[in-house]
């Protein structure tokens, strides 16, 4: 699955009201980024940060639509250098564990043959180097 397919396929569904803080924290982060004028994606060289900004922008827009409520979505899990953590998971506000999968840290692309599972997909197995 490409990054664009992943972005295009994250699900927007209905949550309960008590689950809103997680989503609002994400939207607040996005609003804070916009307030600091961190909106030029060309300034964001790291792939995970660029994707995160795009997803936050879509979440904020979806939340502003009348009647649109979100209970399952994907936020890229970025490291401090702006690249992807090898384990990525969807966020679920309905109490159900979201699906997790393994990606290449430099691109965010799913590792071929890695499983999608609710829980730990054991991503470190793809990066163990044996001498």
TrEMBL record:
Predominant location category? secreted
Q: Where is the signal peptide?
A: none
Looking up Gene3D superfamilies in the UniProt record yields:
Thyroglobulin type-1
**Subcellular location, record wording:** Secreted
The record, for SMART domains, names: TY
Its keywords, alphabetically, are: Disulfide bond, Growth factor binding, Secreted, Signal
- SUPFAM superfamilies linked to this entry: Thyroglobulin type-1 domain
Q: Does the keyword Transmembrane apply?
A: no
Q: Give a Pfam family name.
A: Thyroglobulin_1
Keyword Signal attached: yes
GO molecular function annotation: insulin-like growth factor binding
Record-annotated Thyroglobulin type-1 domain positions: 45-123
Protein name (record): Insulin-like growth factor binding protein 1, isoform CRA_b
Gene transcribed to yield this protein = Igfbp1
